[in-house]
Predict the 3D structure of the following.
Amino acid sequence: MTGQYSGLIMMVVFFGIFYFLLIRPQQKKNKEIQKMRSELQIGDNIITIGGVHGKVLSIKDEVMTIEVGADKTKLQVSKWAVGSKQE
């Protein structure tokens, strides 16, 4: 009888290890990024996922206008494209 259930028990154990080592940390990281993006304010310095450094000028729903470079070029980017916020 125990031989029949050992394979099932091993699968459950492997799934548990997989969940706690891979899935849960990724979900936590995604939640932190979503929180950072939702808390962006005008005047914050950001870095997009493409590596563009800029300052937030305006935020409208899911699109924001940022100012980049010495000549103060204005770009519109999606909120999901923000990779990090500089302090």
Notes: The CA atoms of residues 47 and 53 lie 5 Å apart. The longest helix spans residues 2-38. The two ends are 60 Å apart (CA to CA). The chain is about 45% helix and 35% strand.
